[in-house]
Write a structure and sequence with these properties.
Layout: E1 2-3, H1 8-20, E2 28-29, E3 36-37, H2 40-53, E4 56-65, E5 68-77, E6 82-90, H3 96-115, H4 131-140, H5 151-157, H6 161-174, H7 179-198
Antiparallel strand pairs: 1-6, 2-3, 4-5, 5-6
Helix pairs in contact: 1-2, 2-3, 5-7, 6-7
């Protein structure tokens, strides 16, 4: 940004002008995206009268450097104070239509930024020919699917009752009710019974006949 040595009078005038500015009306339709936006004329309509009433003027000058198009926007006050800023865009094509579209685009955003009017949707498709295709590709890309859990393999890997109890809690939380859950429940139940039967059992006490490893000389594990 460039400016005059002092901008106090300009700042006061711009503040008064902004108090009277209205939003830019979305009166144009983007032929590529189908959305409405406020074009350059609409932005000017929103700010011209308030600027003029407060002795402010805007000059926008385009320039090119190879495939770079620039627009310098200068806001001037009757006191001689000024603020200037340049916006640039790299062209995908340099035919007259693309250059004109880019200049209009830069003028609209340069003016909006300079006087404080928020721009709406981007209509610079001609200055960026791949924009529509990229946007549609992003919009059409489905979100990544969550990783698939091989519940049958996890059930088969359960070696202890504790393992299967933990797996049961996880399955209950993650598998919605339905045919899949019912089918897995049957497989799980069969595996659970199999593991439970194979689990080692405590030997019976030689004195009292009860399980729990009592003896020697029992009685029920209280003495030697």
């Amino acid at each position: 940004m460039d400016k005059s040595e002092a901008i106090d009078a300009l700042a006061v005038a711009l503040a008064k002008a902004q108090a009277k500015m209205r939003p830019a009306v979305k009166d144009s339709k983007n032929p590529h995206f189908g959305n409405k936006y406020a074009d350059l004329a609409s932005v000017w309509d929103a700010c011209r009268d308030p600027l003029t009433a407060n002795d402010l003027a805007v000059v926008q000058l385009p320039s090119t450097d190879g495939n770079i198009v620039s627009v310098t926007t200068t806001l001037m006050h009757k006191s001689g104070q000024w603020i200037s800023s340049r916006a640039s865009a790299q062209m995908a094509k340099t035919d007259p239509q693309s250059i004109g579209s880019a200049i209009t685009y830069l003028r609209r955003y340069g003016l909006s930024a300079m006087v404080g009017i928020a721009p709406d949707d981007d209509d610079a498709e001609a200055a960026s020919p791949r924009g529509q295709q990229v946007q549609r590709q992003v919009a059409d890309t489905p979100p990544p699917s969550p990783p698939q859990v091989d519940w049958l393999a996890l059930i088969a890997k359960g070696e202890t009752v504790a393992d299967l109890d933990a797996l049961a809690a996880k399955m209950s939380a993650q598998i919605p009710k339905g045919p899949q859950r019912e089918q897995l429940r049957k497989v799980f139940s069969a595996r659970y019974d199999e593991v439970k039967k194979a689990a080692p059992k405590d030997k019976a006490c030689s004195e009292c006949g009860r399980s729990g490893t009592h003896a020697p000389s029992c009685p029920e594990g209280d003495g030697l």
